[in-house]
Amino acid sequence: MQSTNRNLRAPRLFAVMLLLLSVWCLHAQPTATNRVLELDGRGSYVELPANIVNELTEATVEGWVKWDRFGNWMRFFDFGKESQAMVVGNTDTSSGLGFELWNSKQARALNLTVKDILVTGRWCHIAAVTGTGGVTLYLNGALVGTDAYAGSFASIGNGSRNLLGRNNWRENHAVDDFHG
Question: What is the reported pTM?
Fold first, then answer.
């Protein structure tokens, strides 16, 4: 009988340790995972490495975005350089959503705009799909715009300045940084 009792001690000890670990895990404070990039519209932005997407002939640019206000061409995404970029942001100073692509000839090859669709203070999911099948623009999962233009990052020709929350034209024109 003594050998049977010894054999039962290990599983009981394991069960007690598992129970204690479970209780500890339930009371442990979880690490916050809902952090976001908050930009104040006054010089806060993120610059990603240059030329990281230059060769892509098809791509989807997407993000969860919340505008605190609409300023002069506030772009949450601007890859390339002035007159040679892929851009997603509000249009002019309005609540319109704009997706532009300026090609290697420094000409605007695509200007897809949806008027009066954005709202301040609310999260929205924006996705712009580019490639050989043309361009599609989505807001919160709904298709809001299409264009037959078959270009993507490769058609830009220069991805030297890749910004989140800042307009690539900022140094040459009076424009606002993204606020949201």
Answer: 0.77
Encoded tokens for 75: 């772009």
Mean pLDDT value across residues 46-65: 92
- Taking CA atoms, 41 is separated from 15, 163, 179, in Å, by 55, 13, 4
Question: Tell me: the pLDDT tens digits for 91-108?
Answer: 989 999 999 998 888 888
Q: Is residue 76 part of a domain?
A: yes
pLDDT of residue 12: 54
What integer pLDDT is reported at residue 122 of this predicted model?
95
Total domain count, the chain: 1
| Cα distance between residue 77 and residue 53, in whole Å | 13
Coil, helix or strand at residue 69 = coil
Task: Give me the CATH number covering residue 89.
Answer: 2.60.120.200
d(CA 41, CA 68): 9
Strand segments, DSSP code E, in the chain are 46-48, 59-65, 75-81, 84-90, 97-102, 108-114, 124-130, 135-139, 142-147, 161-164
Q: Which residue range forms the structural domain that includes residue 111?
A: 46-164
CA-to-CA separations, 28 to 18, 20, 21, 100, in angstroms, rounded: 15, 12, 10, 47
Helix and strand totals (H; E) in the chain: 2, 10
